Amino acid sequence: MKEVLSSPALVEVLPLGGFDHALTYGAKKSLYDCLKVGSLVRIPLGVRRVIGVVSSLSPEHSPPREKLRFVSSLVQPEPVLSSELVNLAKWISAYYACSLENTLGAMIPASVRDGMEAKTRRMIEAIVMPKEQVADLVKRSPKQANAYALLKESKPKQVDAIVWGRESKVSPSVIDGLIKKGLIKQSMSEVSRDAYSDEWTDDAEGLVESLRELTEEQQKATDEIVEDLDSGEFRTRLLQGVTGSGKTEVYCQAMEKALGQGGGVLFLVPEVALAPQTVDRLRARFGQSGEEVVVWHSHLSAGERLDAWRKLVRGEARIVVGARSAVFAPVQNLRLVVVDEEHEAAFKQEDAPRYQGRDVAVYRAYLNGAICLLGSATPSLETARNVKSGKYAKSVLSKRIDGRELPLVHLIDMRREALKQKVPPILSQPLVEALRQRYENREQSILFLNRRGFNTTLFCTECGEVEQCRDCSIAMTYHRTDHYLHCHLCGYRKPAPRVCGNCKSVDIRKKGHGTQRIEDVVESIMPRRARVVRVDADVMTKKNLFREILRDFRKGKIDVMVGTQMIAKGLDFPRVTLVGVIDADLPLRMEDFRASERAFQILVQVAGRAGRGDRAGEVYVQTYAPHESCIQFARRAELDAFLDEELAMRKELNYPPFRHLIRHVFRGRSEQKTKFYAEQWRKELDRAQLKDVEIKGPAATPLVKMKGYYRYHLFYLTSSVSNCLSQVRKIRGQFIIDNEIIDILDIDAVQVS
Ligand code: ADP
Ligand code: ZN
Ligand code: ZN
Fold this sequence. Notes:
Number of domains: 5
Strand order of the largest sheet: 11-12-10-13-14-9-15
Low-confidence stretches: 1-6, 195-207
CATH class of the largest domain: Alpha Beta
Number of helices: 25
Radius of gyration: 30 Å
Number of strands: 31
Distance between the termini: 60 Å
Bound molecules: adenosine-5'-diphosphate, zinc ion
Helix content: 25-40%
CATH topology of the largest domain: Rossmann fold
CATH superfamily of the largest domain: P-loop containing nucleotide triphosphate hydrolases
């Protein structure tokens, strides 16, 4: 104690709360010896005790002696954050306008922050002794004698006290009694909560792939990535490959190279539950060489996450597969980051910290001098532009494996189908016939349904026209209450027309259909023995159901699978020869400037599910807007032409990726107040005359009331996020808002509802 007082060891600690810079603390010698940069400690801060990360063990400046406070305790000796992750956190909190505390909170699993311990088990074992001695010891307790005899017989000799006690109906007090008498020996052992060992396997057969030759294109792409890895410098590359072109194999080649360099790999997918086959393939592939693949997803229990985290921190595992939040997984010596299906909106986090996982992945690779590989059959416009400008490199897989054809896509003009029948049909005649034909041929079908928006938009069933805002080129929303159309970007409104503005038809409609309804219709048109299943959000909430459905589908027990987004991507079923799209143009009726991009992506991805086996696939696409160019480009699978046209369109409107889109949401319990402050704020902004910021709104969000809160939003279009933020913040600092109202900034917003 004396020694501590005379010359305390000093450490710098970054408190995880309220502070954006490190503070200096003293540490007792015994504690100091356990600390590393990145260790998690508990420290006094004001009157509170908070958690902090040790950021330096040799502080640059000495604090005034009398004010020195001491680290209270050690929470996690293992470094929770490398300096690289601390830098990443700083960048995220600056760029995405969220607190460092919030960001660090997202980075460090709660179980680690809480100082959760590794799980230990109490193991017990009977000690062999002469009979008389045993009899003597347990003389007065037949229960103990009984338990001892049982334990002596158990195989293996050493058992988990709790499990064994439960199974053999021996109470803990009996066990303790025997321990006291020296008849049972106990020891502690650390266990790993490896709950997901075969969690994702829907059918492991055929997954352990025999080594086969890469196609010419795969080889070329691999060579290019290997060259990137050899350079030892940061680089981002788009792997643009049509569906079924073997992108996963190229990822694996790149991973092998990175592991060979002694590095770690981060593999991001839009949602782990939707990528069971990818996880299985990686496990089968790398498991063979003793490489553990850690799966990082939101359903892990606190203990499982802690164990996964530990394995990575200690370098016991070097590969992580996970969704968005896995971008923070503490992979050591990161060499390669793969972002599969990089165009997916799911990479954007919609709660604080509101980051774009794909972009964070690129930045993390940059901080590590690693390679970031973005893969997609339908790259995002953002990535396409970065390739065009030379910021990202590109490798292309233009052909399907084994020269399989992309499926033939038929467009079914629903405007004409609607004329044939009184009520617009859900399933057109050609699609019904195709479904029945597949059933007879013992082939499988997938029916895809777009997810509906929150609101109704108006469209004409005769010409397919969708009512759009004159200023924003997005679909307008119909409001039942006042029969007006509203633009949810800028707030413009006009009375809902009674006739189509394009063809003067009176047949303008507002509805879509749910999956349940489609399932019923499909059942009604199929032969009685046909098996139809539905996969939607409900199914996904039941943990094993989706996996079971996939397994049954693979085994051919299901004839038709009906579903939403979840079945659009990634799945590889050789026996599927028909894909039907119920409402291809529905995204075009959504209030989103990315509508064409989404419609195109979904069509191409869904079509990609057909014809992955020996037989060619066919796709039937029902649409009211067959003339729309995104639908035409998707039909012919003309990616580059689509990207060119869409980029030109975005440029003309100055939308992303040509400028950044920042969404500013005002949220409150009172609609009047929320609207009022959003409007006042707009006036404030107009007075200030911001530079390089175009302002839209305020407007009610498409889903104006959510969880009891009313929401109004404004949009800022700018070429520089930091410049825009600093101007906005300056004004916001002087703008007084009722404290019932909360305002939130969402940088590079994806969701506009
Ligand atoms: P993508 O991700 O581009 O849609 P996948 O990676 O799923 O395509 O590959 C499609 C199919 O082709 C898979 O069944 C995969 O096992 C197979 N495959 C990939 N590369 C080869 C190859 N070089 N030779 C034979 N089959 C391959
Ligand atoms: Zn019309
Ligand atoms: Zn508008």
